[in-house]
Amino acid sequence: MKQQLRVLGIDDSPFKFKDERALVVGALVRVPNYLEGVLTTDVAVDGDDATSRIADMVSGSRYSEQIKAVMLDGIAVAGFNVIDIEKLSTSLEIPVITVTRDRPDMERMRSALEKHFPDWKRRYGLITKIGLRRLSTAHKPIFACGVGLSWSELEELVVLSTVRGAVPEPLRMAHLIAAGVVRGESYGRP
Length: 190
Hints:
This protein is of the alpha+beta class and 190 residues long. The chain has one domain: 2-Layer Sandwich (archaeoglobus fulgidus dsm 4304 fold), CATH 3.30.2170. It is 33% helix and 28% strand. It contains six helices and nine strands; from the N terminus they run βββαβββαβααββαα. The strands form two sheets. It has a seven-stranded mixed sheet with strand order 3-2-1-4-7-9-8, with helices on both faces. Strands 5-6 form a two-stranded antiparallel sheet.
């Protein structure tokens, strides 16, 4: 994988479950850490429009031809608005990967989905369709999955885009920008 490729890191902003919509930010980073642009959209909290809204955000951008991969902070935004990463990858014709710091508690997630969503089986199916794998970093391990690239290419992309810590820069930047826009200043960890 070549250096200086452009990766779009995507994260949602802080939100409250009473909110109807949540901000989603894309940080376009020339790997390893040069921020070239910022994209935004919004999605329904606990809705089902994340895949299409993110696809429209990316494909409608002046950067669309330059983006070589999309990196998501987890597979859902704005609560349980689950992203169909296979559909997103096919639509954009580029790899899509998810990265998370901690292994999710799948039983707890399934229970929450069953309790709150009539379409819980569809959402849970999207979450579990492509299993997360542990990925070692110089620090704490992270968990990732992806489509449109091999596991070794995914590992290489995460390594190339991580400057310090365990979180790749595109995700770290998207997180900081989203929090800063909504709260007035950035905080916390992606």
